[in-house]
Structure formats: C-alpha cells, structure tokens
C-alpha cells in the first residue's frame, strides 16, 4: 500500500528554512506570511489493510521519520497495491 | 488564504535522501519500497479568491519553490482567512 507522510515543524518551533523561503519570496515580489517548510515522504508498505498500514507507518514516524519533540506528522494511506 | 505545496522529485530522478530513508527503515526492521522524500511548504498569501491564490502560488513554485527540471509540485489552497 502506498502511504504519504507529511512532517512539519510544530507551531512555535523555529523554522529557519521557512523563514528563508518567506524572505526569498518577499524579495521576488510575492507577499506571503507564515511560510513553513517540512518534509513529504512517499513510500510503499506491505500490509493486509489500510489500518495496519497506517499503524506501521506511524511507528516509522515515531522511530525515524519525525522528531516528535519538534515535529508533527500526518499519515495518509493513498491506495492499495496487490495487498 | 492558506496554501500547501508539495514538491517531490520526479519519477526517474535519483533521490538519495529517499534511498537513505528506505535503507534506514529496512535496518529498523520495516519492509518498505520506493521511499521518496520531498518538501511540504505551508504559507499564507493575500488573494481575492482561491483561483488567484493558486495561480500566485504556482508562480512561486516555478520561480523559487521547485526546480521544474527535476521536481514536480502540487498546490492546494486549504482555506480562506479574511480575504
């Protein structure tokens, strides 16, 4: 099954990359506020159903993909592939 | 208006970060295939309607947020905020 994970800096956590993006967009003439940059991870896991896939990917987030102290994550199971 | 941009390496483009994530997950005992890592950018723009906001953010992608040669992007306008 295909999964998409969004990992974002938590509110209140300093995000230098987001600040750089916001300021660069400003220099290009765009008016933006609150730019924040995180990661999107797409992957494919073996699982019998979507709930099992989601549980497995949440484990991956806790153990590797996100730093739960400063990042929040969102897991979406996108589709089934010969489960 | 709030916008979310997903920037991903195009299919066929080498993604060393994705390979590192896939291999690290393998070492932790997870079975994953095709891990790919991209960016998620959240920002807020001034625009009169969602279509205008989307056009503006697509411009930002072309000019700064993505490298169209090797990355694809997806723009989603998430909500309105005192437009």
Write a structural description:
Chain A has helices at about 15-25, 50-65, and strands spanning about 1-10, 30-45, 70-80. Chain A has about 80 residues and is α+β, with helices and mostly antiparallel strands. A three-stranded antiparallel sheet of chain A has the order 2-1-3. The first copy, chain A, has one domain: Mth169, Chain: A, CATH 3.30.1280. The first copy, chain A, is built from two helices and three strands, in the order βαβαβ. The longest helix of chain A has 16 residues, at about 50-65. At the A-B interface, β1, α1, β2 and α2 of A face β1, α1, β2 and α2 of B. β2 (about 30-45) of chain A pairs antiparallel with β2 of chain B, so a sheet runs across the interface.
Put the structure in a nutshell.
Two copies of one chain form a homodimer. Chain A is of the alpha+beta class.
This entry's quaternary arrangement is homodimer
Give the C-level CATH assignment of chain A. Answer: Alpha Beta
- Which architecture of chain A does the CATH hierarchy give at level 2? 2-Layer Sandwich
Number of strand segments of chain A:
3
Largest sheet of chain A: 3 strands, antiparallel
Mind telling me the C-alpha Rg of chain A? Answer: 16 Å
Q: Which structural class do the helices and strands of chain A define?
A: alpha+beta
Topology order of chain A in helix (H) and strand (E) letters = EHEHE
Helix and strand arrangement:
The structure is a homodimer of 83-residue chains.
Chain A: E1 2-9, H1 16-27, E2 32-45, H2 50-65, E3 71-79
Antiparallel strand pairs in A: 1-2, 1-3
Features:
homodimer; 83 residues; alpha+beta; Mth169, Chain: A; three-stranded antiparallel β-sheet; 3 strands; elongated
